[in-house]
Design a protein that fits this description.
The chain is α+β, with helices and mostly antiparallel strands and 316 residues long. It is built from eight helices and ten strands. It starts with a helix and ends with a strand.
Length: 316
Amino acid sequence: MKILSKISALAISLTLMCSCMIFTSAESRWAELGIDASNTDNRVFDLADIYTDSQEKELNQQIEKVKSLTGWDIGIVTNTLGVEQWDMQAITDDIYDYCGFGKAEDNYSGALLVVDMNSRQFCISTCGNAIQGVNDDYMDKIYDSIEDCLRDSDNIGGAYEYVNGLADSFINSSLPKNTDEKGFVIDGEGNRWIVDGHGFDKNGNVKYESFWHKWLAGLKVTWLPTLIVLVVVIAIFLITVRQKYKKFGQGNSTAPEAVERISLKNRNDVFVDKRVVVTKIPRNTGGGSGRSSGGGSSTHTSSSGRTHGGGGGRGF
C-alpha cells in the first residue's frame, strides 16, 4: 500500500509539474513579445507598427471611454507572427490569459482583438461578462465591419469598428447598465450613450462626435433658414409642374364623350387538367456549425482553463 501511495503521489507531482511547465511556457512565449498588460494602462500593443503615435493615443482614449461604459478590459494586439487561421482563436485566448488582460475580481471580463499582418488574419476573444455582452450575432457584425476596413487597408478604422462595436453590443445586451433619470445609458463619468457608439454629455450635447455631427456643425447654419428655403423650393417645383399639366389639359381636344367605349365580351374558362406536386421538406435536426442560436454566445475553453467567446480567425 505504501508503494502504491508513493506511486500515486509521484504521478500527481509529475502532472502538476507538466501543468506548470505548459503554463510557464505559454506565459513566457508571449512575454518575449513584450506584451504585459498587467503593468500599464496602455491597451494598444502595436507590434506590427500599423498605427501612428497619434492614432494609438486616440485609440487608447476611446478604449478608456468604452471601458468606463462596460467595465471590461479591452485590448488590441497587432503582430507579424504569421499565425494560420485555425490557430488564431487559441493564440488570441492565450495572449489575453497570459499577458495580463482582465482582472480576477472582475471575472477576467474583457475582449481582445489580435491582428496578424503577416498571415492577414484577425480574431477576437471575449472573457467573463463580455461573453454574454457580445452574442454571436453582434460578433458577426463586428467581424464584418473589421474585415471591410482591413481589406481597404483602413487599419485604424478596423480598430474603431471593434471598440465601438463592443459598446453597441453592450448597450443592446441583457447585462445590467447604469441609467440616468431619463433612462439613458450612462458610463462611469455620467456621459450618455446611444447605440451607434457615440456618447452625449450630461446636458444632452454630443460629446463623441460622429462624421455626420461634424459635417452638420461645419455647415454653420441654423435649421430654421434651411427649412424655409427647402419649403420655398418645393413650393416652386409643385407650382411649375401644376402649370405644365394644366396647359397640357387645355390643349387636349378629346372630350370624355368622344372616347370609344370598351367592348366587353363573354369569356369562359375551361378546366383541362390538375397536377399536384408533393415535396418532402427535411426537418432541421440542429446539427452543423455549433454556433449559438437565439441570440446566445458560443464558448470554448482556452489552454489556461478559462472560458472564452469569440468568432475564430478570419482572413482579410
